[in-house]
Every structure is written in C-alpha cells, then in structure tokens.
C-alpha cells in the first residue's frame, strides 16, 4: 500500500522533529514555512534571550547538545546553531519549502478523524507570489504558539491606543528589530511595558539598561508570578522536585484509578510542603516582599501552568527596581489617555511615549484561521482550551494532528514525544479509540487543567505531569513506560528527553 502523503506546516522545533520522525517511518513529508530560514521563535528575540530550562531538558533525544556548548542555559545563537545541525544531520532540508506560506487547508469530505478524504493545502510562494495547491492525505500543524498573532488587550472606545499620542507596539515588533535598532528605538523615551511574563521582564530590563533612571521604564501588570533565581532551591536540583515520578504521585492526575487518587490525597500536604520549600527559598533569594511582588498563588500552581520565569541574573533586575530605572505598577485594569496609560485601580496616570504590549500571543487564532471550514475552526478554537486528544488530535477533524500547542516546562522534549507518537499513529502502530472515548479523555484532561491551572487552564499546560503524559503516549506506542533501570531510579530520578531515546 502507498504511504500517505504528509504535509507539515512549520519548520521549527516541532516541525523539524515531526519531519524527522515521519521520514524514519518511511514517509516522504513536505514541510512548509513562511520564513526564509528554520529558526522559528528563536530568530527574532531580545538580545538577552537564553534557554529557560537547563539544556539537559531541552535537547533532541537522539542528537544531544555538542560538548562545545558548556553553558547549561544556551544562548539564542547556540540554539540556532543546534537546530541547523539537527536539520543537516538528519537531512531534513530537502523536505522543507521555505518562504512558503500555507494560506489555507480544506478537506474534501468526512466528519471524524478516521475519514479518508484528502486535504487541499494552498501554499503561497512568498518569493514569486505564485499559489499552488498540494493534495495530501494528512496534515500536521506545527505552526507554533508564541509567534505571528499578537494578543492585544481590548479597551473601550476613546480609551484605546488610537487616542494615545505616542506609539504602541507589540513585543513581536520590538523583538523583530535588530538589537542596535531596538536600543536606538527606546533610547531617551518614556516606556511603559504591559505584561510581566518573560518577555515583559526582558524588555523592561533592556529599556532600563539603555535609559537608566532618567527615563524609567514602567511595567504595568495584573498578576505576579514566581521568578526562579536558579534551578536548585536550597541546593536540591529542581528536577528532583518536579520532574520525577514521585513528584507526580503527590498530585491528582487525569484518568488515575482509586489507589493513585487516594495516594495523591494522602500526599497532598507533601506537595504543599514542596511548594512552600521552594517559595521560601525564592523569598530568601529575591526581594519579592520588598517590592510587593509575592504572588498570591502557590509556586506549584505556576509550575503546573508553566508560568514560572527563570531569572538567572536577578540582581540586575532588582537593582534597576531599587534605583527606579524600572517601576512596577500592578493593576487589574488600565486604559490609554492622550499621554500614556491611566491606571484604574488608583486613578494614577503614567506618562509614556512608547507602550510595548508584552501580552503574549493568540496561538489558537493561528490554528483556527488556517482552516477553510469555519466548522473545523470552531472545533479548534470554540472553547477556552484547544481540545486535543493526547494534546495532538481533534477527534472531529479528519486526518490532522497538531504538535507544539499545549505547553510544558521544556517544549522541545514534549514536541519530540508527540512527533514520535503521531508518526507511529500514521504508520499504523496503534489505532485511536472511538470519537466518544477520545472526547471523554479530553474532558478528563480539561478537568485536570481547570483544577491545576485555574484561570490559566486555556494554556493547556502539562507542566507538572510530563511523565504521566508520556506514559499514555508510550502505552499507545507499545513502549515500556518505565524508562530507567530499577524501581528506585524510576520513582525518584528526574526524567528527560534522553530517557525516551530507545523504543
Ligand atoms: C522568545 C521565546 C523564548 C522561548 N524560550 C523557551 C524556553 O526557554 N524553553 C521552552 O521550553 N520554550 C521556550 N519558548 C517556547 C517556544 O515557543 C518553544 O520552545 C519552541 O521553540 C516552539 O517551537 P515550534 O516549532 O512549536 O513553534 P515556532 O518556533 O513558533 O515555529 C512555528 C513555525 O511555523 C511557521 N508558520 C506558522 N504559520 C505558518 C503558515 N501558515 N505557513 C507556513 N509556516 C507557518 C512559523 O513561521 C514558524 O517558523 C520560547 C518562546 C519564545 C517566543
Ligand atoms: N527563553 C527566554 O528567555 C524567553 C523569553 C521570552 C519569552 N519566553 C517564553 O515565550 C512564551 C511567551 O512569553 P510572553 O511573556 O511573551 O507571554 P506570556 O507568557 O503569555 O505572558 C503574557 C503576559 O501578558 C499579560 N497579559 C495577557 N493578557 C493581558 C491583558 N489583557 N491585560 C493585561 N495583561 C495581559 C499576562 O498577565 P497575567 O499573568 O495576569 O495573565 C502576562 O503577564 C512563554 O513560554 C515564555 O516562557 C522565553
């Protein structure tokens, strides 16, 4: 029987991995990316961008970091070099069509994943302007979550960016500038950064380094999140606290049986204790209390929702807050006025010439808009969380998978497991359950995410359950779930990508 023709949208971390695993299973995938190179979110970033997780957790399982990279948290340039070496090593480039934007995909017939129609993939060649339709059996969307479609908060008419005399941009535009241009752009300006995720933090630091306290940069934000000064609280590697099976025994899991549920309930004080242990360490290392930055919620919640922010050179940041090069303004709501931002909470006004929205991205919109069919678009983005079986398959969208949408604390590791799983599914190594069963499973994970991440459940984070999640994928693929030698190692040793190299 002829192998299915597979099209992959996106040629970055997720797309490269998916391409590699499809080739390994004998497919001849065709990969489209609108950019002129294969660097993904890592190409256009702030100067200071480094890997957030230790490199042992963010590496290709069969292509580890070269010995020449000593740093545990590689730089943007090292990341790019690594991706290029991977693509060259596995000869992926002949499969990749760059500067090829997938404008839309449409399916000729069928209403469930199992239908056997064809996808029409309409691709625009950015260089020539020509449009071509590729007819394929299976589409894998690896189009990324933190790029392309900015999330801009909504404001009442008359209090929106239009009224503002200065300039308002999204962090995406700032990151796209080369570093010198970005520095020249903010120099001497009163800047307000909206949002205090990793991007907001990095941009504020850059502004403070350029402008000092003469033109302070103000961060306007809604909620505090835990900042991690290093990956070894009180000397214990973080991976021993949150990346082993024992840590997962302490929390309730979707689809757990009675015994695991009982154990999680009995051990929940320990889970709370581990969180407090880390929180106390962070509060000892960082002056969060002094600057009113202690989060209202637990460290464990930020871990589950993948909202912790690694802050290696925290002294620079807190020095900048101390000397008022960076000012912090917390408020649940704010608006624009002619000369800046007005903060509703206490009716203060912050003058600004430049407002930078570091408010994240609308990854779900990107997924939704690629479908010609509004029904499929609605299936994907009609609820707060993109509902995917194994975080890859929508049971009612035929012959299509998504990789790289749901988040983890090390997205490369997670995308690799998913790429392996989807390639095995395509090969016929296992069959999917019925639509009804898949929907029930999605509902269980949905419930888990609501419980564990609260208002952030839309992020679809598997932050604290990476191994439990991998277990499901291994079970489907017929791989042994126990990846270490011996029960002690399986229970207590941290798990990472290299544990899943062998079948
Ligand atoms: C600045 C930054 C730093 C990060 N740091 C970390 C980190 O330290 N650790 C971590 O785990 N995660 C990190 N992340 C999350 C990061 O998104 C993932 O780790 C990973 O790089 C995502 O890879 P991806 O291939 O899934 O998506 P992307 O890198 O976003 O790639 C998607 C690709 O699809 C292409 N594409 C999209 N739509 C189309 C279309 N219609 N047609 C053709 N091509 C299309 C895009 O051009 C893009 O190249 C970071 C994200 C950002 C923005
Ligand atoms: N490796 C690195 O150095 C690096 C650098 C940058 C980014 N990243 C990664 O890239 C991803 C994206 O990061 P990001 O910081 O761009 O986005 P993000 O993590 O989604 O954070 C968005 C921020 O904007 C705020 N926000 C969202 N909507 C808002 C609204 N309507 N009004 C006010 N505030 C709003 C959020 O506040 P609330 O918390 O209150 O919702 C949050 O502070 C993350 O995974 C991050 O770890 C990594």
UniProtKB/TrEMBL annotation:
Q: Which cofactor does it need?
A: FAD
Q: Which InterPro entries match?
A: FAD/NAD-bd_sf (IPR036188), Flavin_mOase (IPR000960), Flavin_mOase-like (IPR020946), FMO-like (IPR050346)
For this protein, what is any one GO molecular function term? Answer: flavin adenine dinucleotide binding
Q: What class of enzyme is it?
A: oxidoreductase
Name the UniProt key words of this record, in alphabetical order: FAD, Flavoprotein, Monooxygenase, NADP, Oxidoreductase
Tell me where on the tree of life, at the top rank, the source sits.
Eukaryota
Per the UniProt entry, the Enzyme Commission number(s) are 1.-.-.-
- Coiled coil: present as a keyword of the record? no
PANTHER family assigned: DIMETHYLANILINE MONOOXYGENASE (PTHR23023)
Q: Which family does it belong to?
A: Belongs to the FMO family.
Please give the name of this protein: Flavin-containing monooxygenase
Q: Which organism is it from?
A: Tagetes erecta (African marigold)
